[in-house]
Amino acid sequence: QVQLDESGGGLVQAGGSLRLSCAASGLTLSRYGMGWFRQAPGKEREFVAAISWTTSTIYADSVKGRFTISRDNAKNMVYLQMNSLKPEDTAVYYCAARMGSTHTLAGLYDYWGQGTQVTVSS
To answer: Is it the case that residue 84 has pLDDT exceeding 90?
Structure first.
């Protein structure tokens, strides 16, 4: 059974940093593209960042230059380093896995975690 467990969320002041982690089990991580998405109250889930099995990365324009996605296949872990956080980054952040290549569309991902709350105060 595939399971994705996010951690590392919390409350931080604007300009601060957080590092989200996603622990994957029940799959061979090296075969999957991994993504981070977020959903704010009253809004649709949106793409944040993704990393392929070759470690190529893509980012949403809103986080480019501030967020960094990485992966450690040996540990079955994916990370999202978030710097220079803004109040508009406040959302529940989800880790997702997709067999093969990465994508920016949430509907194309096969597995999802339960999410971790990130709150950025102004």
So the answer is: yes
